[in-house]
Structure formats: structure tokens, C-alpha cells
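HUMAN: Now follow C-alpha cell order:
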Amino acid sequence: RSLAMSALHDVGSHPSLSTHAPCTGDLQGALVIAFFLLTLRIMMTTALSRLFGLYIQRRGPQPGLKANAAEEAALRCWYMIVHVVMSAAGLLLCMPRDWLTGSGGEIFYRLPWPHGPADDAVLSFYLLQAAINLESCVYLGLNFLRAGVRGQLMMVLHHMITVSLIVLSWTTGVYEVGAVMMLLHDASDIGIDMLKLFGALAWDAALVPAFILTLLLWSSLRLVYFPVHIIWPGWVKLYRGCHPALLELAPYPQTLETCIVLTEFPTSTSMLLLLHLLLALHLAWTVQLVNKGWQKLRGGEKSSMAQFPDACAPGLVSLPDADKLNKTKRQ
């Protein structure tokens, strides 16, 4: 924070982006919180899986019920709690600052960078999100050891892009981009967690309304609000900064005709490209979501939990259906 404060004294010229890099204390704090979250997740999912196991045992055999249904349902509950809590925290952070409704170009891409020192609420939000992503990386690594990379490449790519954007927005002092992006991801993942929970417990009657709600939430946040509020203003700002007739370089009156020489130009372009890669993954997952939902509505093959898109937390490796497993044992 002291580094961020000292950076403000040089904001009149070309601000140094390195002055806002997370310090060693931030990384240590994130690691401690990540270890705490990992321990808490193991404890909660273990307890919840026992409860779901008792529920499944009393309910009796159900078509399409997986052998690991209790563990999968417990994991979905954990991540649903995480996404609900972080969505509420993101709303409390972004709404008073007008980051969700104000002009995207002036909020996210105004010059110069950094925008100023972050207050305690912003830094705490980033620190907690960093810890959650570190914990998810550990879980993703365990999945690799257990099942390999096959079927999880999109998940790995999405995770790498998200972490890169968090680091970029944190190190450059453009906290608004990372905060709003993380809020959108957490809020839209609640529906995915709900779908996977209902699918794990074979609650077919609840899948249709949950699918419709999830599709609306996912599409509105990731396919409409995300590109319109975050991506498009970035291109508009970049165009106005590079076009001589629309030059907007008030913080840098000594700059030449284009913004290519600006300190912010390489980083802002990199952030926009990463945001477009995220949007491409969102589109691909939307197609998967619609296809699986359409199959379900037509009464086709039941969709496994792992087939639904999951932008933050990898699902458990699916095991054979319980009835198929019993047939194999009898043979």
C-alpha cells in the first residue's frame, strides 16, 4: 500500500506500472488464506457428503445416479456457497463505487494508470479472490493426477486467463476491471453449481427450471453485460487514443500523435486480448450448455454433471452409474 501511495506523486507523467505489483506480504497472506480454505473445503465436503449419502440411501436407487453422487453434491454445495458469498462481496464493493453502472471507458480505461491506491476493501477483495483461485489451482492439480488432462483443457485455459487478468489488473492499479470481472464470474457460476447439484442428486424435476434460470443468468452476464460494459469501452478508448482526429491524451500532453508510446498501451492491449479469449470460452460453454439442455428437454440421454460448463471450479471425475457398477460386480 505504501508503494501505491508513493506512485501517486509521479502520476503527472508516465506512471510506473511496477509500483503496484503485489508485495511479498500479499502473496504470503493469499497462501495462508488458501490453505485455510482448502482445509475448510475438505471438512465441509466430508460432512456434507455423509449427509447426502444418508439421503441417497434412504431415497433408494435412482436412474442416472452416479456412484460418487454424494461427494459431487457436497462439492457443488461448497462452491455454491463460495460463489454466493463472493458475489455478495463483489456487489458491496462495486455498487457504491459506480463500477457496475457508470461509463465503462471512464471507469476501466481512463488515463493515467494506476488509478490510485486501493482502499482496504478493494485489497481485501483481491486478496480473498487470489486465495480462492490458488485453492482451486490445488484442486485442479489433484484432478490432473487422478484423471489426466483430457476433457479439462478448456478449464485449464480459462483458469490461466482469469488468473492473468487478476494479476494484470492488480499490478497495474486498474482494480475496477478485475473486481467487476470476478463478480460476473462468481454470479454466473451460481446457476452452474445449482445445475450440477441437481444433476448429482438426480433431481430431474428441478433441472428444467434450473436450466432456464442458469441460461438466462449466464447469457445476460457473460455474453451481454461482459462484452458491452468491459470489452467494448476498451476498444473505443483505444481507438480514440490512437486516432489523430479523436486524440484523448490529456494526462500526457507531451505525447506524440498516437498512444503507442504510452506506458499503458501494451498492458491495456494485452488485457483486451485476454478478455476476448474469455468471451470465446464463454461462447463455447454456452453452446455446450444449450446442447445438453436441449437433449434433456427432448428426453434424450441424461447429461452428466461434468458436461455442464464450469468456469471456476473443476468437477469431480465422473464414475460409472451405480446400476452399471452393480452389474459389473455381479458379473
Residues 22-330 form one domain. The chain has ten helices and no strands. Residues 22 and 171 are 6 Å apart (CA to CA). The first helix runs from residue 2 to 7.
